[in-house]
Amino acid sequence: MLSIIHGYTRWCLIVSGLLFLGLHVSPTGQALAHPHVFLETEIEIEFNEQGLKGIWQEWTFDEYQSSWIINQYNIDQEGEISSQELDRLYRETFENLKHYNFFTMVMVGDEKIPATKIENFSVKVKDGLAIYSFFVPFDMEINQDKQEVFILVYDETYFCHVFFPPDNIGFKGDLSSWEINYSTQKKSSLRFYFGMVTPEAIKLSIAPL
Amino acid sequence: MTARIFTILLLSLILFLPWTSFAQSPFQAPPEQPEEKKEHRFQPGDLVPEWIKEKGQATLARIMAWQHQIRQKAAAYARQIREDPWGSAFWSYLGLAFAYGVVHALGPGHGKAFVGTYFLSRKASVKQGLMVGSVMSFLHVLSAIILVMGVYFIFKTGGMGPLDQAEARMQKISAGLIFLVGLFLAWKSGRAMLHGSAGGCGCCSTRADNKSLLSLALAVGLVPCPGAALILFFSITLDIMFAGLVAMVFLAAGLTLVTASFALAALFARNLLAKVTTAGSIISPRLYHLPAMIGAVLISLLGIALYFNPIL
């Protein structure tokens, strides 16, 4: 039995060595058994006189990711973080999300309007969990009598499992100019992770008052 | 000598790889394929009927919710362990690690497709089913332990990005090995078919042999278990490394339960099928090896599919 194990371990090592050399330069695919991070969301949708101004978001990371963020960026249990560390945290763990549109997208009909920038980034700690807060501006004018707008927050790479939509959705800003109704809807055209995950959108029906 | 050179080469590559470029996390690295160039490519999943996809989605969502709940509870116990290392939280942590292993193994990956295919196509014993399940699962976890220790202590880096990237690469190596194991099994079955023997001699037997089983277990188990890596990494961060390492044994036991169950289910299904289809009939010795041949080819094809579409 031992000789079998020895022989085959050696064989596997040889082939692995060759494959490793061959694959070292090749790009990697989507990894098995994602997600690694669970992310809970809270949102507030802000309106102004022209229409949809943008979306305020809070992302609460799971204990594992939170523990890494808190340790890596020296955030104390009260959530205090120095401005240098906040800058470093933003650069190292958030800025790069611009390549992924900050996981946020608005859809009008079939037209996709991905987030391109964020504002007012801050971080806090609550019950040992790291929470990122930020504003995603859209400045979308609403000119029609009635407009349907979908809001989606999901990570197409499935590194993160984003719990969205949240149970409670907040609205703020100039709400007296608009009649706003909302529901949720699965967007099967946006399936990802080998077609196994369908993102769910907040569907807003907006009409001027 | 050759083996030694390759072993040293492999270890050097693992140790001296540019880990900083391994950050696949969207929080830390840009996508490999720019967004505008993304287009729908054919994937084997496209052939799956819609109703199966919907069921699969619902199941996956449930598994994700369970994983999240278990992780939340485990994190609470982990913090208590820091205060009281041998208190009840320690044992609860181990219990949850076992549960996490079971739930995690029910998700994509972990070799279920391979053991299923292998045991459906070859005659095997219950002992072999249990052996392959445990070797595969414990190796899967051991690989994660080595990876986490390397990333955390040697390269002084954290976060799941580097681990994720390393996993993706190891997965491709594993897929290559699975392909080779499948080819080897196919060659063996082909030889037996040409020989025309019904498995009387050792070289032509359709029975599962420990050599091929162990090769498959090694090839599949080589991929570090991401769930194990995550829990161990968290335990190290919270300064409860010992509890984390013990939890790995329990997590591997949970994985084993699922993988071995798949192996045994396939094994019993095969035995039942063989009884029903061969009762009262005489089968040509050449055809006798056909299921094993089909199984071997399927394993190779699964290896190729895993290389390009890692969700098996």
Q: What structural category characterises the helix and strand content of chain A?
A: alpha+beta
> What are the segments of chain B in which pLDDT stays under 50 over at least 5 consecutive residues?
5-23, 34-38
Count of DSSP helices of chain A? 3
End-to-end Cα distance of chain A, whole Å, is: 80 Å
Oligomeric state: heterodimer
Indicate the proportion of strand residues of chain B.
under 5%
Give the DSSP E fraction of chain A (strand runs of 2 or more residues). Answer: 35-45%
Radius of gyration of chain A: 22 Å
> Biggest β-sheet of chain A, characterized?
6 strands, mixed
- On the 0-100 scale, what is the average pLDDT of chain A? 83
Shape of chain A: globular
**Total beta-strand segments of chain B:** 0
Question: Fraction of residues of chain A in helices?
Answer: 10-25%
N-to-C order of helices and strands of chain B: HHHHHHHHHHH
Q: Name the largest protein-protein interface in this structure.
A: A-B, 60 and 77 residues
Q: What structural class do you assign from the helix and strand content of chain B?
A: mainly alpha
SSE pattern of chain A: HEEHHEEEEEEEEE
Unreliable stretches of chain A, pLDDT < 50, 5 or more residues?
A: 11-32
Give the overall form of chain B. elongated
